[in-house]
Amino acid sequence: MEKYIDIEYQLHVLLECNHTLLNQVEILLNRVDQQTIAPTTEWLDGNDVCRILKIYPRTLQVYCNKNILPFRRLGGKVFFSKTDIEATLEAKKF
């Protein structure tokens, strides 16, 4: 009888852990959904932006550090929205 109670308790604990884990996964998935980049957005890397703006990579880095150009970091690489670059050019922020 004691083994049955112990197994039942362990099963209950395991189910609680599973429920907690599922809740955490759901929270993470919601965060990813909120941060998902629209697939219709055209993204440029640093080389493309330097070519378009006719600037050096170090200048681009300064613009990013000063929040002159909005960017997104994905997997250690920096990307720029083409529409953001065009809007920055039109506003003549630099």
Task: Please render the helix and strand layout as text.
Elements: H1 2-35, E1 43-45, H2 46-53, H3 57-65, E2 72-74, E3 77-81, H4 82-91
Antiparallel strand pairs: 1-3, 2-3
- Strands in their spatial order, largest beta sheet: 1-3-2
Largest sheet: 3 strands, antiparallel
Number of domains: 2
Given as residue ranges, the uncertain stretches (5+ residues, pLDDT < 50) are none
Q: Radius of gyration from the CA trace? A: 24 Å
Multimeric state:
single chain
Please report which band the strand proportion falls in: under 5%, 5-15%, 15-25%, 25-35%, 35-45% or over 45%: 5-15%
Mean pLDDT: 85
Give the overall shape: rod-shaped
Structure classification: mainly alpha
**Number of strand elements:** 3
InterPro entries: DNA-bd_dom_put_sf (IPR009061), HTH_17 (IPR041657)
Organism: Butyricimonas hominis
Protein name: Helix-turn-helix domain-containing protein
Domain Helix-turn-helix: 43-92
Structure commentary:
It is a single chain. This protein is mainly alpha-helical. It has 2 domains: 1-36; 43-91. The protein is 65% helix and 12% strand. It has helices at residues 2-35, 46-53, 57-65, 82-91, and strands spanning 43-45, 72-74, 77-81. It has a 3-stranded antiparallel β-sheet. The chain is rod-shaped. The relative contact order is 0.11.
